[in-house]
Amino acid sequence: MRMPTVFISHGAPVLVLTQTPASQFLRSLSTHVPPPRAILVVSAHWEAPQPTLGLSDDTIHDFYGFPKPLYEMHYKAPVARGVATRAMELLKPHHAITDATRGRDHGVWSPLILAWPQADVPIVQLSLIGGATPKTHYDIGRALAPLRDEGVLIIGSGSATHNLRARPTPAPAEWATRFVAWLDETLETGNDEALLDWQRSAPYAEINHPSPEHFDPIFVARGAAAGEKARTLHASYEFGSLSMNAYAFGG
Fold it and tell me: ω into residue 217 within 30 of 0, thus cis?
């Protein structure tokens, strides 16, 4: 069975301690996809000079000022070492490497601790490339596409919108809703050309993503299912401007 690929908005770390529409969705994520043999996650919170696969199972608490229980959480799912080896082969033209000491940042463990709380599915994290174009990340996704036929769920973990300084009233902000409406239409119509040119084609692109790292994971997920149908799995807002939308591609 060919697995779909998924893009999720992982939200603030405190999401794992709260009951919101987004946290409820993430708790149900495993019901929206076939049972995976393993999971490969591309998180907004790890950029490297070249594609890098993290081989440690350490839980990274890469945030500050949050409730103490968050810092006591650990997600000890096994490392998907075989998937890492296979991804290295597929990404050879992109000069992929491994990092034996790199653990899992909250873009990985905070959504997965909700979706697969038993931590029984092996996972491996793949970095973004700092400063790379959307097309580069899209091509990385395309290179990884064979993993889908091997039972691997590819997840891009970022945010549909990501302006943390904005607290609009009334909410949600019009600039956020217009961007998300554009994103929904672009994905549903399969307009990958517009998606890859999002900084020029999307309304209010800069205010929704003052920096692109939280949007970049969508290109990996989309590229791994290029030409296949997209569907919206979840839609909600938090903090007035933070879209928690999630999408599946293919499968």
Answer: no
